[in-house]
Amino acid sequence: MRKKIPIGSTRIGMYVDGFDASWFQTPFLRHRFEIKSQDQLDKIMESGIGYMYIDTEKGLDVLSVEEKAAPPGPKAAKPAAPPKKDAAPSEMAFKDYVEAMDDLIQIDKLSLTESTTVDFDLFVKNGIDIVPLSKTSRGKSEITKELLTLSGELMINRADVDKYKDYLAEVAKSAGAGRSVASKNMMIKENAKILVRDLFNDPRSPAKMDECKDTVENVISSIIDTKGLITNLFTVNKFDYYVYTHSVNVSVFCVATAIAMGIKSEGELFAIGMGSLLHDIGMSTIPHEVMQKPFERLSEFEIGILKGHVYEGLDIVKLYKGITPETMLPLLEHHENLMGTGYPQGLKGDKLHVSGRIISITNTYDTLTTSRPGFKAITPYEALAHLRDQKQLYDPDILKEFITVLGKSSL
Ligand SMILES: [Fe+2]
Fold first, then answer.
1. I need a surface site. Which of 33, 50, 130, 390 has the fewest CB within 10 A?
2. What is the pLDDT, as a whole number, of residue 395?
3. Do 83 and 127 have their domain in common?
């Protein structure tokens, strides 16, 4: 049974099933565990939290009046904890995870350079398990080879993003001639992810939209300057779906493909870059539980809500003065296809604008190469083969250019 108890009643042998506090107010990374040591008990007692939850089927209950009154001795010895039940993530564990993720942001492992030091905490995430890698409250931590080769994704606290940005700037500044473009691109991309993440929390912020404009201009300049190279401008190893990583990837792919197609107009490139960066901004209005459910398990009603992100997004961006009708096209058409079986308008053939044709390819590619609830990512090669097989849905000439773009970046 799940029970709320005052912190003062905690004892070794109890099974913690959550704290009555936000994730980062507690001294623990996991909010589901058995209290096995005095050290853990002390940490809980000293945390300043008023109440916590225990699971009395997995561990000890609070002491009864009789137990409290009993003199110390064999009779008062702790009963053994009952055997643990299946450790599959419960609904509560998942809720904790979602809450924890509100305070974390995924960073690219490749952005960290071996033998450098960082002054922010790092976490590694595998599925819904999040474990701290370094505690830097008392100093800096070294980036080791072991850290860079760990499986899983690296995360940092949102509160540390400025320290991370400073780190990226420092690495880019000190990079040798051979690494300067790669480091600069990494900095542009990671900053763009942080920005889009912030924008999703505050989608109607004109200041954030202005920053997005600058980011898109930086992306366009970088791709033009390097004659189509997008190395480090997108995230390759994606273990999980983050709308901010996806948005940046799709935008970079769209701009690079447009340039490869021979589009030179600054206005056109900007419209496709900005529109694709914002293409999923309507997702900011979709409830967590719908976002996290495998598509197959969504009800008709929930599918309707999910598909509504296109028009929701349009409603958000049209409030911003810097958005032209051309900029809205990638957002409006990113789920359309040449057959007319897409949504929301079911546009067919010539009715689909060039920017819609480009983003329908890049959006599908990035979605297929990213794992998400109920779907395991396929390889870039498999994703491209899938797109090639769907000639009736995707423009084959544009797909060819996109493949060239990816090929240049040694995928
Ligand atoms: Fe979408």
1. 50
2. 96
3. no
State in Å: Cα 212 to ligand 1 middle: 18
Domain boundary among 92, 120, 140: 92
Distance (angstroms) between ligand 1 centre and the Cα of 184 equals: 28
Closest CA to 190 of 220, 156, 225: 156
Which pLDDT belongs to residue 89? 56
CA of 228 to the centre of ligand 1 (A): 25
How far is ligand 1, taken at its centre, from the CA of residue 367, in Å? 9
- In angstroms, what is the span from residue 347 Cα to ligand 1's centroid? 16
CA of 200 to the centre of ligand 1 (A): 14
pLDDT at 12: 82
Please check whether residues 82 and 214 belong to one and the same domain.
no
**pLDDT at res. 256:** 98
Residue 48: count other Cβ atoms within 10 Å of its Cβ: 10
Taking alpha carbons only, the member of 321, 317, 320, 322 closest to residue 332 is 317
Residue 98: inside a domain, yes or no? no
- As given in the structure block, the two tokens for residue 244 are 């901010």
Q: Domain range spanning residue 127? A: 103-174
| Domain match, 193 and 212 both | yes
Q: What is the pLDDT of residues 3-59, one digit of tens each?
A: 877 777 788 888 888 877 655 556 666 677 888 877 777 777 767 677 788 888 888
Distance 363 CA to ligand 1 centre (A): 8
Do 170 and 185 fall into the same domain?
no
- The radius of gyration computed from the CA coordinates of the chain, to the nearest angstrom, equals 25
d(CA 250, CA 256): 10
Kindly report the pTM of this predicted structure: 0.77
> In angstroms, rounded to a whole number, what is the distance separating the alpha carbons of residues 226 and 408?
11
Q: How far is the CA of 307 from the centre of ligand 1 (A)?
A: 8
Find the 117 Cα to ligand 1 centroid distance in Å.
Answer: 38
- Which residues of the chain are modeled with pLDDT < 50? 65-66, 68-87, 137
Residue 107 lies in a domain: yes
Q: Does residue 167 share a domain with residue 23? A: no
Measure 248 CA to ligand 1 centroid, in angstroms: 13
Q: Residue 394 has what pLDDT?
A: 97
C-alpha angle 408/410/411, rounded to 5°?
A: 115
**Ligand 1 mean position, distance from CA 303 (Å):** 12
CA of 329 to the centre of ligand 1 (A): 13
Q: Are residues 114 and 57 both part of a single domain?
A: no
